[in-house]
Design brief:
single chain; alpha+beta; six-stranded antiparallel sheet
């Protein structure tokens, strides 16, 4: 049977990557309108953040100037489809959106700022994924739905994580945390800290490790019943997603994902975190993640 003329012309004019995408379905699932780059074979959906007014250095910033979330779909190689995107988020949105994305098959590849002196603070979370088109589009929709749910509950971004009030005087008991974490740490003025290094080779051939900053660490403050933990994880690309999932599943907030070096082998990605709760529970959350990033 001959192809209808319209379909034949479409197949001639458009690249195979575009023909492999169900553009109408992507818009339907994500709930977002998109645009087609025929030459690149990419279909991109966008959502300007015009729901919250943002000023940068005292001037109101139009979404056109860098406050638009997007997700771009194209045909995959090993998988049916791949997606990449950048989500414009406020501080109270970052971690719920991250969890929604991770739980729906997307990966998180970076979290950082684009501005100084922005009010409210704006963060940019980069996402990716490979797999079935509908599943990826569903993951993108889940991320945007999480934003909508948060802003529906509070039109103005909140200014704190909530949870227990951390006492100003520190009184962390080191011994229970050392037992939970399975390692010795350093105590100072009622605070407690552990660090686990790993070795990499720089492009100069130099070997560097924990003493040069290639380390995962956790610092505890407050009291045993109302503590905070902050720190940094140094992970490979393969370890990043499972470590993020582990910490998020235990209520730990991720606050930055970026590199500290260039041209190191293996590549190391660093991410920073913050959590509040009982010191023992926080220690267990950190330990679970350490078993992924530093199994030995």
């Amino acid at each position: 049977m001959k192809k209808p003329l319209a379909l034949f012309l479409l197949s001639v004019c458009l690249p195979q990557a575009v023909l492999a995408l169900d553009i109408v379905r992507i818009e339907e699932i994500t709930g977002l309108k998109g645009s087609l780059d025929e030459k690149a074979g990419v279909f991109k959906v966008t959502s300007p953040r015009n729901d919250v007014a943002v000023t940068v250095d005292g001037r109101t910033l139009d979404p056109f100037l860098g406050l638009t979330s997007w997700a771009a779909f194209t045909k995959g190689k090993e998988a049916e489809t791949m997606v990449m995107g950048d989500l414009v988020l406020f501080q109270d949105e970052v971690n719920p959106v991250m969890s929604a994305a991770l739980e729906n098959g997307l990966t998180i590849t970076a979290l950082h700022n684009h501005f100084f002196y922005d009010d409210p603070k704006v963060y940019f979370m980069h996402i990716g994924g490979e797999g079935e088109e509908e599943k990826l589009a569903t993951g993108v929709r889940a991320a945007f739905d999480a934003v909508g749910k948060i802003r529906a509950a509070n039109a103005k971004p909140t200014e704190g994580f909530g949870g227990p009030v951390i006492p100003p005087e520190n009184s962390i008991s080191p011994e229970p945390l050392e037992e939970i974490l399975g390692m010795k740490g350093t105590a100072k003025d009622g605070m407690f800290k552990i660090s686990v290094g790993r070795d990499v080779e720089m492009d100069c051939g130099c070997k560097v490790g924990g003493a040069m900053g290639v380390a995962s660490w956790a610092a505890f403050a407050g009291s045993d019943d109302a503590a905070s933990v902050d720190g940094d994880f140094a992970v490979t690309a393969a370890e990043l997603q499972p470590t993020l999932k582990s910490l998020r599943s235990n209520g730990i907030n991720i606050v930055a994902i970026h590199n500290h070096m260039t041209a190191e082998k293996p590549q190391i990605i660093f991410f920073h975190y913050w959590g509040k709760g009982k010191a023992g529970d926080l220690g267990k959350a950190v330990k679970a993640a350490l078993l992924i990033a530093h199994p030995q």
